[in-house]
User: Which sequence fits this backbone?
């Protein structure tokens, strides 16, 4: 792979809508497109997602960072430094937030900020250039320098966890439905019992009232 990055994507977490994208290796980006789309939708379904996470999938790594409701994602070669990948995402987040931060919530169509691709490419080249990558590392903050604080998952774990959550949600919905049916059935039984208990008395009382009405009036 000529570039350490196969794809860089910026998406809104609330609805997984892509806001900007830079594709460097078309075959690989296409191959992982469905996986990345599924991941974004899981972020929407299962908040809160980790602020920073690396997902292992095949021969590549998916690094992503979430800030202010926006996901910054990079599909990278495994040999590329994880620190550099997250340093790049950090700079990407700052640049995008400064330029488009106040317009993210109101964006109505996919790739509304596709013009940001030029900035994405410029920053990426700085991190891929061995002459400037050491300067990028020196800019890392204390939290980012501790790689152990970046959550590491496999794509199978991500999708399996969400499948289990989907199954659990389905079970909860079924239990809610059964509980509603039980309450309705219990209410019907209650009225039936009251009718059986007081129905005859009410019938006799009604006959007496009718008799008295016609007798006196």
Assistant:
């Amino acid at each position: 792979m000529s570039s350490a990055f196969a794809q860089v994507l910026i998406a809104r977490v609330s609805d997984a809508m892509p806001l900007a994208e830079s594709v460097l290796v078309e075959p690989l980006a296409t191959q992982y497109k469905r996986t990345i789309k599924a991941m974004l939708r899981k972020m929407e379904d299962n908040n809160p997602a980790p602020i920073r996470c690396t997902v292992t999938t095949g021969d590549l790594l998916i690094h992503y960072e979430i800030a202010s409701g926006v996901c910054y994602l990079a599909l990278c070669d495994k040999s590329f430094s994880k620190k550099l990948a997250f340093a790049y995402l950090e700079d990407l987040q700052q640049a995008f937030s400064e330029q488009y931060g106040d317009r993210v919530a109101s964006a109505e169509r996919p790739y509304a900020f596709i013009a940001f691709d030029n900035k994405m490419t410029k920053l990426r080249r700085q991190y891929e250039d061995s002459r400037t990558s050491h300067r990028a590392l020196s800019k890392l903050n204390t939290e980012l320098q501790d790689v152990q604080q970046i959550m590491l998952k496999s794509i199978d774990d991500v999708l399996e966890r969400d499948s289990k959550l989907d199954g659990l949600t389905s079970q909860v919905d079924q239990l809610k439905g059964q509980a509603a049916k039980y309450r309705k059935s219990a209410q019907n039984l209650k009225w039936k019992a009251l009718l059986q208990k007081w129905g005859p008395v009410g019938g006799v009382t009604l006959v007496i009232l009718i008799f008295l009405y016609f007798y006196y009036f």
Summary: The first strand starts at residue 5 and ends at 12.
